[in-house]
């Protein structure tokens, strides 16, 4: 099984995800709302164990 390199860096509300080949995706999280560049979807953390994600 090969070893895979993954790393996540945070700069305030910005999150950058890196793999061996470079930047794989980035996202932004402000309060309960977040967005991901790879999936291009919004999500909102709701009270308790629930959340909402755009389809």
How does this structure look, described?
There is one protein chain. The protein is an all-beta fold. Helices cover about 0% and strands about 60% of the residues. It is built from no helices and six strands. β4 and β5 form a beta hairpin. The chain is elongated. The model has no long low-confidence stretch (mean pLDDT about 90).
How would you describe this structure in keywords?
single chain, about 55 residues, 6-stranded antiparallel sheet, elongated
Q: H/E element string?
A: EEEEEE
Distance between the termini: 34 Å
| Average pLDDT taken over every residue | 92
Largest sheet: 6 strands, antiparallel
- Share of residues in strands: over 45%
Which term fits the overall shape? Answer: elongated
What share of the residues lie within helices?
under 10%
Number of E strands: 6
Structural class category: mainly beta
Record the strand order, biggest sheet. 1-2-3-4-5-6
Topology at a glance:
Layout (H helix, E strand, L loop, with lengths): L5 E6 L2 E6 L2 E9 L2 E4 L4 E5 L5 E3 L2
In short:
This protein is mostly beta strands and about 55 residues long. The chain has strands at about 5-10, 15-20, 20-30, 35, 40-45, 50-55.
